[in-house]
Amino acid sequence: MAAKKVLLLCGDYMEDYEVMVPFQALQAYGVSVDAVCPGKKAGDVCRTAVHQGIGHQTYSETRGHNFALNASFDEITANGYDGLVIPGGRAPEYLAMDEKVLDIVRKFSDAKKPIASVCHGQLILAAAGVVQKRTCTAYPAVKPVLVAAGAKWDEPDTMAKCTVDGNLITAATYDSHPEFISLFVKALGGSVAGSDKKILFLCGDYMEDYEVMVPFQSLQALGCHVDAVCPDKGAGEKCPTAIHDFEGDQTYSEKPGHDFTLTASFESVDASSYDALVIPGGRAPEYLALNDKVISLVKGFSDKGKPIASICHGQQILSAAGVLKGKKCTAQLGPGTRSSSPSSWLCWASRSPSELKDESFKCSWAQLRLTV
């Protein structure tokens, strides 16, 4: 089957996870993704928003990552794409008033191409007039708009709710991503396999936000069983994350990210129960590398020859565990990575900040297959 190409409709203050997770997950699966925003061109950025419930009457908002566009809105046409993805957040509030945006959405709908929209993204679908007599879900506050536009409302019993009506895939929030992305891939004609694999994520406070959630939900979308653990924390507890961005300074900036929910207890896991290990970066590895139980766990995966995927500062843990000797590695350049244990490195593959910023999460372990 021919390679697939999808359009990602962006805007300032779209939700951080709701743009980056599908953007990088789909690319990891071999789908080409163009991210565009009205009034902006390739290389420009959209500011994102971190939305999460923290016990108030509605969700909180803080600044998210700066998301780099890779195509120009004025140069794209709907007939050049096989599907459309619409993130939520606050961007849909004003994108729903842009006639060029609505025209593109209508063309995807008229051609019956897959449209995947999450959270507040359905405001755009309602404004485009493509939801009449269609069953939809969304963030609960969007219900009145969808009902007024003639949609059949499907109440989300959880914030992971997804609904499919023909070519239209709608979801309540970013908690829906694993099913949402899997359904979209299938709508594109793809097949997903990987449910026999069990993956462990080694987490800590102030790990980098994208570096945990993008691979976590991408692997779940493949059907993998994914557990996330942190020393001294149990299932259901949370780790605060950090947003690291290159914003023109001599090093990256840091902002508070989402709170990431753990799925298992660190004390109950061992390497023999999992097929692979993922280590996010950020600031967590600085202190996790000092934890003997963490080091023992990493050595358990290494000794059994199981895949270990580590990103950015995560390699500090690998260095402390002594599993890098004779290996070719790269990482975020800095004294905490390259210089911490020079004898651990056989070859350092240097990357510039711009390359690191644009790098997409890639998934290519044996027996994880997605054909599009």
UniProtKB/TrEMBL annotation:
PROSITE patterns: PEPTIDASE_C56_PFPI (PS51276). InterPro entries: C56_PfpI-like (IPR006286), Class_I_gatase-like (IPR029062), DJ-1/PfpI (IPR002818). Residues 4-186, 197-332 form the DJ-1/PfpI domain. Belongs to the peptidase C56 family. This is DJ-1/PfpI domain-containing protein. It comes from Panicum virgatum (Blackwell switchgrass).
